[in-house]
Structures are given as C-alpha cells and as structure tokens.
Amino acid sequence: MKMLVWFGLVLGALSAAGNVFVTKPEQTVTLECGVDTFRGSLEWRRGDQRIFSVDGKTGFKRKGTIDIVSRSYDRTTNLEVRRVKLEDAGKFTCVADGNTKEHTLLVVSVSTNPSGDLHLGSEVALTCQVSGLDTAPAVHWKGPDGKLNSGSLKSVARSDAGTWKCEFSHGGQTYSESIDIKVTDPPTPPPPPPPPGPSQSSPGSHKTTCPNCTANPPSGASDLLGLKWWVWVAIGVGCLVMILLMVFVICLCKKIKTKKRRLQKMRNSRQFPKKYCQCNRPTAVGKPQQGRRREKPSAPPLQPLLIE
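Given the sequence above, the corresponding structure tokens read:
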C-alpha cells in the first residue's frame, strides 16, 4: 500500500514538473503549457500574480496588472512573451482544467567588455548572467575551438574570432547561450608631426631667422581691417536696409504732399462757386389751379365824353 502511495506521489510530482525555457533579452519566447486543449478554464501566472485567465465556456478573458501582461499573448494554451526582460525570468504556472504545470524561464545575458568589435592585442572580459534561479549557477565559456575558457582574454588573437558559448547546468540538464565575436586590426595611430624646418624656431627659443616675420601671424587671411568677413556682410546688409528705408520715406512724403494739394483745390472750389448768366425773361404765367373757375376781368369804367 505504501508503495502505491509513493508511486502516486512521484507520478504527481512528475506531472506537475514542467519545462525549462532559455532565452535572451529583447527576444520572443513561447512557454508551452503541456496540454493541447481545455474545456473549463485556462490560467497563466508568474509566481503568484496572474497574467491572464480564460473561461472556456464563455470565452471571457481576464488580465492581470503586472508589467509582463502588456507583452504577453495567448496562443491556444501556450504563452508568448515578446521583448523579454531580465526581470521576466522566474517561475510560470499554467492551470488548465485543474491540471497544474510549473515551468521555469531563464533569461541569459551574454556580453563583452568592451563591447563591439575586438582589436588585436586588446584585453577583453566575457560576461554571462543567468536570471531566473534562486542560486546563480556556475558558468564556463567555450571558444570557437571548443576549448574551455574562464572568460578573460588577456591578448585578443585572430583565432578568438567566432562563436563563444556560455554553458551552465540546472536540474541535471546543460544549457548554453552564444555570442559572436569579431576581431579587427587596431586603429592606426595618427602620423607624427613634421620636424621643424630651418626657418622655424627651435623649442625654447624666440629668435627667428626672418627679421620681417612676426611671432604671431594673423588669425585669418580673409580679415580686413581687423574684422571678420561676416562682420562686413552684416554692415553691407544694414546699409542696404537703411537706403531702402530712406527711399520709402521720401516716396511716402511726396505722396502725402500730392494728396494735400488735391484736397486744398477741392476746398477752394467749394468756397467760390461759379456764377452763371441770368437773363431778364418774362415770368411764365402761372398755370391756373385746377378745380376753380377762372374769373373774367372786370370792364374798365366809362369815361364821360367831352362835347365842344
């Protein structure tokens, strides 16, 4: 009976144990739940915090509030995480219809110091950081030739160019992440300054072989009267603006004077109106008013006749 109990516990532990997924920062990783379909519900959690849960009957989806939620997408029963960060590493739990699967996400960051292409003869340190485990595992490097290396290159050679692998062990399994290294020639140093000529003074001496030469030559051949070329350009532009302004003022004054003259003429013409010739003409007989009968003129009085 005890054997059956222990056997059941072992099977339960094995069924609950999930997979280990390894990725690099800024990459996309897909965490497999371990089941293909579900009927009741599906939930993904990181640690104790929910990422999302789906109701299989209604299709209703609930999301959590942690940072990884905005970069997580459900793919049937799997979880896809984009733009992975170092802080995303850790334990992930998938619960499908009551069956729990616990997975581990390891984020491995590999780099060189200094970064970029390596120069021949330079000293370089290889860095391998594993996030997602309670205890940092021991790591070791393998060069392009397959030999183990501590990750410190005292003098870079051309044979160091190629793919370097950072390997570590967890749960009885060995995992690795790689980085490509390029080796280039060191930068060419600048040429040395030319030696002083016979006409140049030796260091520490202020004497010159040219009696008419000055110790401090002019700052620029384009200087005129001690002023830079752009100063003369500014002066020329300022003078041109002043001339244009003066022409504008003169034209405006003439225009104002012309308007004043016209206005004065108009005022004078209104004060002395023209006189027209008025001829002595008989006044027209007024038109009789309508509606009234015209009266007849009375007869002149009779004058007595004188008899001689």
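The mean pLDDT is 79. Try to locate this feature in the token string yourself.
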